[in-house]
Amino acid sequence: MNYLGHAFLSFGDRDILLGNMIGDHIKGLVALEQYPEGVKKGILLHRKIDGFVDIHPATLRSKILFKEEYGLYAGAIMDTLYDHYLANDPKYFATEEVLLAFSQQVYTQLAENEAHFPLVFAGYYPYMKEHNWLYNYRTVKGMEKSLNGLARRAKYMKPIGKAYEIFIANYYHLNQCYYELIDDLIKFVKTETGGL
Fold this sequence. Notes:
Order of helices and strands: HHHHHHHHHHHH
Mean pLDDT: 94
Low-confidence stretches: none
Number of domains: 1
Strand content: under 5%
Largest sheet: none
Distance between the termini: 19 Å
Shape: globular
């Protein structure tokens, strides 16, 4: 899961949301200790979510499509693509308006915790909000932009065009992988957080 997935799996808790969104930027236990308790829980939850998704059978199966071309980056590609399928899941985001309202709520909650943004996140958060990354996962064009953004951040990744082609060619297969994952993932997160 990428930003939309981590935001969704915070279940409206402001501090856990921040930790979940900045989790990739906080390395080790020392860095973790500077954050309030709720944010720490969110950072640790982010790590647990990533670990669960990485070894889920649906993810292992979907990553095969990208492995030959992108190697270890296959997982990061799938994390991004899962957000597209979540954004279009009628069970959670029945309409564009529901997703739009959710994304605006996330940006508002994050801004309330701005004092705790790590430098890297603080650098791109205004761009995330202005271009509404969370909402734009919904469209195929938005996914092309998201994959390009991933490629810009990943030092040694091959050009991303092929990943986009694989995504389009295997759209329904990857959607099925998402559906196999999401209920298991939600159950896992609710167990880890005591139900939030």
